[in-house]
Amino acid sequence: PPPLPPPSAMLTSRGPALCTALRRAAPGGLASFHSSARRCRAARVAVVLSGCGVYDGTEIHEASAVLVHLSRGGAEVQMYAPDVPQMHVIDHSKGQPAEAESRNVLVESARIARGKIASLAKLTTADHDAVIFPGGFGAAKNLSTFAVDGKDCKVNREVERVLKDFHKAGKPIGLCCISPVLAAKVLSGAEVTVGHEEEEGGKWPYAGTAGAIKELGAKHCVKEVTISFPAHVDTKNKVVTTPAFMCETALHHIFDGIGAMVKNVLKLTGK
After folding, report:
1. Residue 135 and residue 59 in contact, taking contact as beta carbons nearer than 8 Å
2. What is the set of domains in the chain, with CATH numbers?
């Protein structure tokens, strides 16, 4: 068969209009067009963990859902955790404290991160386009004292710094399950959701959290877990929240709701 003509001839054969359009899109020629495409990069997202296990650390299903949806969205992910002792250790087979044990939040979080994790002290806004906090009682025990002190809680110094820095930089913050209390405490006037405000026969066992959020000065927005209404977007503060395991429901609803949160966080990065 005859050899193919060079690319420039093929483009010309398709008409001058196409060539003109390409020149306008890339005044420096096709080489500049392709180099410009290469400069587009994925969103860089920090994920902050609080240990490993729902009752004394990060809720593992939530962390996994966050990571899956970030991967699907093409994000570059780095995980962090504070290098501090856990409030206590829970024997998850019994749901009771293991009195003789003590564990480190960073060391335990490394289980979820498969070892690829850094101290929260190293997290900076310059290196990331967004930050996400999965839930689990670790957010209320290790990242803050909310589990003990409620509205009078203190937030870990590095967690507070990260939240304030990302907010000041106008970069999105995602939180799910109980972790929205962190934003409610640190970011004045933030709008968040932890789901419903009544227990409704046990469907929303932690509904009282909504009242504490209001006492912290934040606005609570009633939301569902399901895909129809799964996340609340505070566009002013760029805070995105979803109830996740605050609700007793099927796992796929939790997964989808977290997916909506992640999708909105990535959208707010503009990447």
Report:
1. yes
2. 44-269 (3.40.50.880)
Give per-residue pLDDT as tens, 165-218. 999 999 999 999 999 999 999 999 999 999 999 999 999 999 999 999 999 999
Query: Which positions are catalytic?
Result: 177
Question: How far apart are alpha carbons 151 and 215 in whole angstroms?
Answer: 6
Cα separation, 249 vs 231, in Å, equals 16
3-state helix, strand, coil split of the chain in percent (to 5) is 40, 15, 40
Alpha helix (H) ranges present in 14-59? Answer: 16-25, 30-39
- Token pair belonging to 75: 């994000």
Letter string b/e over residues 136-169, b meaning 16 or more CB atoms within 10 A of that residue's CB: bbbbbbbbbbbbeebeebebbebbbbbbebbbee
| Residue 108 exposure: Cα atoms within 13 Å on the Cβ side | 27
Sign of the dihedral defined by the CA atoms of residues 238, 244, 247, 249, in that order: positive
* Six-digit token string for 45: 């997202």
Q: How far is residue 64's CA from residue 41's CA, in Å, rounded to a whole number? A: 23
d(CA 212, CA 208): 7
d(CA 99, CA 224): 37
- In whole angstroms, what is the distance from residue 82 CA to residue 265 CA? 22
End-to-end CA, the chain: 45
How far apart CA 75 and CA 88 sit, in angstroms, is 33
pTM assigned to the model: 0.85
